[in-house]
Design goal:
This protein has about 325 residues and is an alpha/beta fold. The protein is built from eleven helices and eleven strands. It has one domain: TIM Barrel. The longest helix has 17 residues. It is globular and about 55 Å long. The termini are close together. The relative contact order is 0.15. Bound molecules: zinc ion. Zinc ion binds next to loops.
Length: about 325
């Protein structure tokens, strides 16, 4: 595959720029916002300001990770891109179970039906109504990946069904898969189930793994080919950045620099400068990148994290040659 579908149309690896691999630009309603009003990110104007800081810091593609039923708004994502020139990857799929009411349709429909819904989002266009209404109204923009979510230490029965549906979507379209891990747990089990469903680990991004900053666990997941996504920079409530920097160094020194990705995951008003909060969506690039350089990370190591590894997850032929040959084969 040579291009990926974004809010600004299909883009090749050379057009991605530095990738924010896990972000939330719009959370426009849904049970998520009812549960926690700080998650309400419904303003295009505020998002344009915040993404402006990201662009000014040299940022490129943003992977938005709020799928069905959790306040996704495809038209607002497109509006942000049109105002800023920053491309956004539109998610399809599902957030973790606690963000849905227990009667959400994901629990009722079977694997094949859900796979059909995912495939249509990936090949025809993302539904503006998020499959929450009887009317499907497809955007001209297609979804770029499928998200599934594990729970703390376990994979619940509905999640297993959604993973199998995501596997069908991957087999039909070659789409990448993004996995929410709860506190970085159940990574091996999630990879096992995805592999059984036909998704090679090299096309799976495991999100939030740095909530469990354990290099032994991460090296084992990376040895299987999985991409490890970290997002605690600047969010000190989770852990000091020194722990994260040490973890990244250890993972790279263990030989897995081609598996690391960074995201902001700034899914709260209180994280955004545009709402008077911090550290801001651009922090991972305008501040944390500088710290990594000061702590001895090389340009090649940073290029891998920001551009080459995301391109490989997306199934694109990276513009710089670093991918191990077996991963290239797996993503072909
Ligand atoms: Zn997130």
């Amino acid at each position: 595959m040579n291009t990926v579908e974004t809010t600004l149309g299909p883009l090749g690896a050379d057009r991605l720029g530095r990738v924010n691999a896990h972000e939330h630009l719009i959370i426009d309603g849904g049970y998520t916002v009812v549960k926690e009003p700080d998650f309400k990110l419904d303003s295009v104007e505020k998002a344009v300001e915040e993404v402006g800081y990201w662009k000014a810091a040299g940022g490129g593609l943003i992977v938005d990770t709020m799928p069905f039923g959790c306040g996704r708004n495809v038209d607002k994502l497109v509006a942000i891109s049109e105002a800023t020139g920053v491309p956004i990857l539109v998610p399809s799929g599902f957030q973790k179970s606690s963000y849905y009411l227990p009667d959400h349709w994901q629990h009722r429909f079977d694997e094949e039906t859900i796979a059909g819904l995912l495939i249509a989002e990936l090949t025809e266009g993302a539904d503006r109504n998020n499959y929450d209404t009887p009317v499907v109204d497809r955007s001209a923009v297609r979804a770029g990946f499928v998200k599934v979510a594990g729970d703390y230490q376990v994979v619940k029965p509905t999640t297993l069904k959604l993973i199998r549906a995501a596997g069908r979507a991957h087999r039909a379209t070659g789409c990448p898969i993004l996995v929410h891990t709860e506190m970085g747990t159940a990574g091996d089990e999630l990879l096992d189930l995805l592999e059984e469903a036909g998704v090679p680990p090299s096309r799976v991004m495991l999100s939030h793994l740095d909530r469990n900053p354990d290099v032994f666990v991460h090296a084992r997941l990376a040895a299987r080919g999985a991409l490890l996504q970290y997002d605690t920079p600047g969010r000190i409530k989770y852990q000091p950045e020194s722990v994260l920097v040490r973890l990244m160094r250890d993972v790279i020194d263990a030989g897995f620099g081609a598996n690391l990705l960074l995201g902001g995951d700034t899914a709260r008003r209180s994280y955004w400068k545009a709402y008077g909060g911090g550290p801001g969506l651009a922090y991972i690039l305008d501040t944390f990148d500088g710290r990594l350089r000061e702590e001895g990370f090389t340009q090649d190591e940073l290029n891998a994290i920001w551009t080459e590894n995301p391109a490989r997850w997306l199934g694109l032929t990276a513009s710089t040659e670093t991918a191990p040959s077996e991963e290239r084969a797996a993503s072909a």
